[in-house]
Amino acid sequence: MITNEHIQKRIAEIIKQSGMTQTALAKELSISQSAIAYFIKGDIMPALETLANLCKCLDVDTDYVLCQDMDI
């Protein structure tokens, strides 16, 4: 079973691997830098629209972020 924890780990991974600063990414997504920090720490999940825009901005497949590649 895929859990929020799995998805949050993927979100943190893609943000860190992007090389973008939290500030630059937040500006690109029109959200606060603290929201990016919360996503990385797993304190909150992004809204669906924000998740879609995050994946588009970082050129990452949403299936990957949503753990559709996991055999569970």
Instruction: Tell me the name of the CATH class.
Output: Mainly Alpha
Give me the Rg, rounded: 11 Å
Structural class given helices, strands, pairing?
Answer: mainly alpha
Distance between the termini: 6 Å
Give the count of structural domains: 1
Gross morphology is globular
Q: How does the major sheet shape up?
A: none
Strand content: under 5%
Question: Helicity range of the residues?
Answer: 55-70%
Which architecture does the CATH hierarchy give at level 2? Orthogonal Bundle
Number of helices: 5
CATH topology: 434 Repressor (Amino-terminal Domain)
Give the beta-strand count.
Answer: 0
Poorly predicted runs? none
| CATH evolutionary superfamily | lambda repressor-like DNA-binding domains
Order of helices and strands: HHHHH
Question: What average pLDDT do the residues reach?
Answer: 93
